[in-house]
Every structure is written in structure tokens, then in C-alpha cells.
Specification:
Elements: H1 2-20, E1 24-31, H2 36-41, H3 45-51, E2 54-61, H4 68-77, H5 81-84, H6 102-107, E3 115-119, H7 122-126, E4 135-138, H8 145-155, E5 162-167, H9 169-177, H10 184-205, E6 214-220, H11 235-238, E7 239-245, E8 252-254, E9 261-262, E10 267-268, H12 270-273, H13 281-290, H14 312-316, E11 331-333, E12 340-344, E13 353-359, E14 364-370, E15 376-380, E16 387-394, E17 399-406
Parallel strand pairs: 1-5, 1-6, 2-8, 3-4, 3-5
Antiparallel strand pairs: 2-7, 6-7, 9-10, 11-12, 12-15, 13-14, 13-16, 16-17
Helix pairs in contact: 4-13, 8-10, 9-10
Length: 407
């Protein structure tokens, strides 16, 4: 009996240690040419499911040149065209040696990161250098399925740390028939890409070690459009969106964010600009997530001279605190289960704690409020479909997320 309790204690210590030292990984999804109003009009169940655990806004604003080459360069480098040098889709004048993609920056401190790009638009692979990708895959432009399949393959690699997946179909539809939420072809293209995103997310959740990894999912677009084009400074071209999602993100939507201006018009009001995440913040936030254990913020590193800022503290903040993830020690048995699961807390809960059981689409299947002092509770999984679920505990200052299998 003593040996049994010793083994149990060792397992518990291992579990708690794993929670505290989860490897941080990043998935960036780019959807070219997607207006904010069109994204909200379209039926996008997979993106909508991410919003259940997301820090996001449909009031982000484009601050620079509303063309793909310079826009994606800003998104991936964390600086604008005055520094990265790209002003058009030829990528001429690029200055990536001084302002590289964020994986290159991350590898300055963690050289063994494994990073992959999957892109439908060839210039993004052919004309970009010093980007830090271990593998650059070009897939057919605008088809979606090959892109999804390539991403699923890469996500099966347990050593993957950063994945960037780029879809072009929405932009192609806009150029063909109009960037407009009233255009059925444009909306259909958004909905089709959302379906492929669903396949990618399912592959992410199916990773054998997913429950012990800390994935930050960042999704954005490069520009909107007006008529059948873009490149100007209208609200239809500049009003975009920004999503950061993950199991440990404190959900929050930023609404009614004012326009901070544009470098192409009369300059950017930096105070207003900090009220909502913008394109250059994707790279900086991703960097901060990957290098969080080194205890510095990339936007404070003077040698990098970044224009973007990190929103990581806001993304993970709960009730004004810093990210205090996985302070709740939890043990559960059995797993998998077909009937019920017993959860125990070696240290009794010191705060009111919400329990939620979510399926992999983000839908809440079970919910319960646990009182301070609770040491255990039983969860019935009878009647649930077989498959993977996330058991999430959250209080004002702590959280834990566990992967549960129903058989």
C-alpha cells in the first residue's frame, strides 16, 4: 500500500511539473483579403468556436500599405515597410536581413525550434529570405484542400513548434467578383476556408501530447478590399480583424476601437493605436509566447527595433493578474472513461472555480461551479460522443486544462 501511494505521489508531482513547464507553440493562420464585416457575415463555425477562448477584435486597423507583400511582411516581421522595405508584391527592396521573420528572432534564443510555412501564394515562399522556416511548402493557389492536408501532415510531427498556414481563396474571390459582404461568392470563399481551418484544428487537437502543450493560435488577414481591388486607404480596405486563441486565453472581445490612422495618410496616433492589436503585433506576440520563459518582452529589445507590441499579458490576464496558468493541481481517473470520471484536488480549492467540459469545437458539454474547499467531484460522461474533450478549471487567479477521452 505504501508503494502505491508513493507511485501516486510521484505521478502527481510529474503532472503538476508538466503543467508548469508546458512547451509553448504557435499556429498562425492567414486568410488573405478578408474584410471584417464579411467575416462576421459569413457562417464560420470553426473560427467562431475559437472565439470561446479568444482575445479578439473586429476593429483592428491597417496602418500601412494595403497590399499583400508589405502587409504579410509586417505581420511576420513585426515592423512596417519603412523598415522591412517591402512596398509591393514583387518584394523588391526587402530588408529581411535587418528585419527578419519572427521565427528567425526566436531562434536567436532557441535555435532548435522547428518551424514550417505552408503558403498558397508562391511569392511568399520564393521571394522571402531570412524567415527562419525549417520547411517551406508551396501548395496550389486557392484550392484549400492541399493546404489543409499539408498542415495536417505537419501537425503530426511532435517536434513542430511554429506553423504558419496561408489561404488565398478569399482574396481571389474578391478580385474576381468583389470584396463585399453582400457578394455570395466572396462569402462562400470565407466559409470554405473556415471548413479547412476546422480540419487543421482537429489535427492540432489530435496531437498525442496536445494536453501538455501550450498552443497560441493567431489568425488575421492582410487587408480588406473595395470593388474588385485594394491598395488604397478606404475603411473597406483598412478595417480588419485580429484573433488570439488558446485553451488558456482569457476570453475578451475589444469593440468600438477607433481608427489610429495610417502611415499612408497623415501618420499614426500611437496612443490610439495601442487600444487594439494590429498587424505588426502578431509577430511580437508570437515571439513573446515562444520566449516567455526567458522573462523579457520582445518589444523592449532595442536591437530588434520592433514596431509591433506584445498583447500576451492582456491575452492571458485574468482579473488584472498576470498569466497564472496551471496553479490548480488536478488528478483524474479513469481516462479514458465511458461512464464517469473522478477529479481530485491534492490541495483543496481556495477559490470558487468554474468547471467546463468542452468538445473540440469549443462547445460546452458539461458545466459546474465548485465551492472553495472542494477536494473532489465526479463527472458523468454518459451520453457523450466518443472522442477527445477538454476539462477546464478556472478561477479568478488560476486555471488548468486537461485532455479527457470518452470511449
Amino acid at each position: 500500500m505504501k508503494n502505491y501511494f508513493l507511485l501516486f505521489s510521484c505521478m502527481l508531482i510529474f503532472v503538476c511539473t508538466a503543467f508548469a513547464t508546458q512547451p509553448r507553440k504557435v499556429l498562425v493562420i492567414g486568410i488573405d483579403g478578408t474584410r471584417a464585416d464579411a467575416l462576421q457575415t459569413a457562417k464560420t463555425p470553426n473560427i467562431d468556436a475559437l472565439l470561446n477562448n479568444a482575445f479578439y477584435t473586429f476593429d483592428s486597423w491597417h496602418l500601412d500599405i494595403t497590399v499583400s507583400g508589405p502587409s504579410w511582411s509586417s505581420i511576420m516581421t513585426g515592423v512596417y515597410h519603412q523598415k522591412h522595405g517591402v512596398t509591393n508584391n514583387s518584394y523588391s527592396g526587402s530588408n529581411y536581413n535587418n528585419y527578419p521573420y519572427f521565427p528567425t528572432r526566436a531562434k536567436e534564443y532557441k535555435p532548435n525550434l522547428y518551424c514550417v510555412q505552408i503558403a498558397e501564394w508562391a511569392p511568399m515562399s520564393d521571394d522571402v529570405y531570412n524567415d527562419g522556416w525549417n520547411l517551406k511548402l508551396k501548395v496550389p493557389d486557392g484550392q484549400g484542400t492541399p493546404t489543409e492536408n499539408a498542415a495536417v501532415t505537419q501537425l503530426a510531427n511532435p517536434n513542430l513548434d511554429v506553423l504558419f498556414v496561408y489561404f488565398d481563396a478569399v482574396d481571389l474571390a474578391g478580385h474576381s467578383s468583389g470584396f463585399n459582404p453582400a457578394n455570395p461568392s466572396y462569402i462562400a470563399a470565407i466559409e470554405n476556408v473556415d471548413g479547412h481551418i476546422g480540419g487543421i484544428l482537429n489535427a492540432l487537437y489530435a496531437r498525442p501530447n496536445y494536453a501538455n502543450e501550450d498552443w497560441l493560435i493567431l489568425i488575421t488577414t492582410d487587408h480588406g478590399g473595395i470593388g474588385t481591388g485594394h491598395g488604397g486607404n478606404t475603411n473597406q480596405e483598412r478595417h480588419i480583424w485580429w484573433i488570439a486563441s488558446g485553451n488558456n486565453v482569457s476570453p475578451r472581445q475589444l469593440t468600438n476601437r477607433p481608427d489610429p490612422g495610417s502611415y499612408q495618410i497623415s501618420g499614426v496616433n500611437q496612443s490610439v493605436r495601442r487600444q487594439s492589436p494590429v498587424q505588426a503585433d502578431v509577430a511580437v506576440t508570437a515571439l513573446h509566447h515562444l520566449l516567455y520563459d526567458l522573462n523579457f518582452k520582445p518589444d523592449t529589445v532595442s536591437k530588434w527595433n520592433l514596431d509591433g507590441i506584445s498583447w500576451l499579458d492582456s491575452i492571458y490576464a485574468t482579473s488584472g493578474t498576470r498569466n497564472l496558468k496551471y496553479n490548480i493541481a488536478v488528478e483524474f481517473f479513469p481516462n479514458p472513461s465511458a461512464s464517469s470520471v473522478q477529479f481530485t484536488f491534492p490541495k483543496a480549492l481556495d477559490q470558487s472555480t468554474r468547471f467546463e467540459l468542452l468538445d473540440m469545437s469549443g462547445m460546452v458539454c458539461r458545466q459546474e461551479d465548485l465551492m472553495p474547499g472542494a477536494e473532489r467531484f465526479a463527472l458523468s460522461v454518459a451520453g457523450l460522443a466518443k472522442g477527445a474533450y477538454l476539462a477546464r478549471f478556472s478561477s479568478a487567479e488560476a486555471s488548468a486544462t486537461l485532455k479527457l477521452m470518452v470511449e
